[in-house]
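In this supplementary section we document a worked example of the pipeline. Step one takes a protein sequence of length 205 as its only input; no multiple sequence alignment statistics are reported here. Step two produces a three-dimensional model, which step three serialises into structure tokens for compact storage. The input and output of this example are shown verbatim.
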Amino acid sequence: MGTFHYPNGKKVTSIAKKKSSSSMKRDISYSNRGMSLEDDINQSNDYYLLTNQAIIHKKPTPVQIVNVEYPKRSAAVIREAYFKLASTTDYNGVYKGRYIDFEAKETKNKTSFPLKNFHEHQITHMQQIIDHGGISFVILRFSSTDESYLFDSSHLIHFWKEQSLGRKSIPKAEIEEKGHSITIGYQPRLNYLHIVDSVYFSSSF
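The serialised model returned by step three reads:
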């Protein structure tokens, strides 16, 4: 793989090499516990689709290819490309007649979740989803302890706004209090829709 450019013009080089390196680290980190958060969610979404519970997919990132080489007739190698737009959130779909939209993030931190993992355009997007009556949340994973939480976007937005007061992260204690722990199972791997039912479809919400 060659060079990719983000919308701000910043280059991303040797993508294949970086991806391979991160995959190796991921394999080491989860060798005794499980897959990456993205893998867990993708497997869960496949199960939800197969069992006709929900239609939720990972959003594709629009890419404009500008330089392609054909070393073989049957194969093409992308040498240079641009990400057309800044991404919003990772996943969206429909569940029980409601639009659902969420982001998934991991951290190696043990006591807090860094706000730098999110971007202004993502926060804006989440607020727009809420304003239009959609379901918006983030799935946060503490990779060192393999703990995952569903955290409503309204809470994330609150902490995001407090950056002006010097806040740099969300304490894990706050995530445990305001969020909802998601247990890891077999089918589905990460049953986050069980939490969605109790949070967004209960009469108390």
